[in-house]
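Problem: given the chain below (276 residues), write out its structure.
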Amino acid sequence: MFLVTGATGNVGSELVRSLASAGDEVRALTRASGQASLPAGVEGVTGDLDDPGTLSPALTGVRGVFLMSGFRDMHGVLAEIRRAGVQRVVQLSGSSAVASDTSNAISRYMIASETAVRESGAPWTILRPRGFMSNALQWAPQLRGGDVVRAPFAGVRIAVIDPYDIAAVAAQALRSDAHEGQAYPLTGPESLLPADRVRTLGAVLDRELRFEAQPDAEARAEMSASMPKEYVDAFFSFYVEGTLDESEVFPTVEEVTGRPPRTFEQWARAHAAAFR
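Solution.
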């Protein structure tokens, strides 16, 4: 039995499907009962990673846990995992965890989460994906109303990765002790600018799409309307001040899964309906 936290998220939902389709027993953790539509055979359970005491029923009989980062009491969550006798933890982290600047809010919670996993005493594997291809879904409202995408950080190259591939690596790490003690950088096969992704999406949709760089001040105001200031500051530190480089392509997905990671074009074709 594997427990997947964040089971309705970009990576968690892909992992639930991957494990279930391979015949693994899967338990999907959500905050509220009936919150998620799950594949046949997947057991939905409720629990709150911000309240470790609620996790005991979800952890009963579990061999491996796919664990999200950034919760208030990661040490408490991991104590519950150890108490349940879980044999393996695969943690979803991020590339900013390798930074040493804990004044950056995103780096700080990534570093703290990884430290908690390393200190837990449970066998672990840490996944550090670069930007998700699925972040392009943020453009869907613009494209349903026109052919122009306005987006920030126009000059930033990212080796974006399909959440499907992150899930594929996670599935391998849950099933085998061959990946214990590894912190894996995960990327797609190419480093792309936002304009490159828009161009590819246009070809898939058979539309003449155009990219417009969003000015920093406008982007900051828009982001501030939907997230705390410390996280807005963190993104501007990464992508305007240049404190985070996510442009390098790594071979990890192919090394772990035996196949190359999906391209952005493949992701776009699989999700084209979301933009129509």
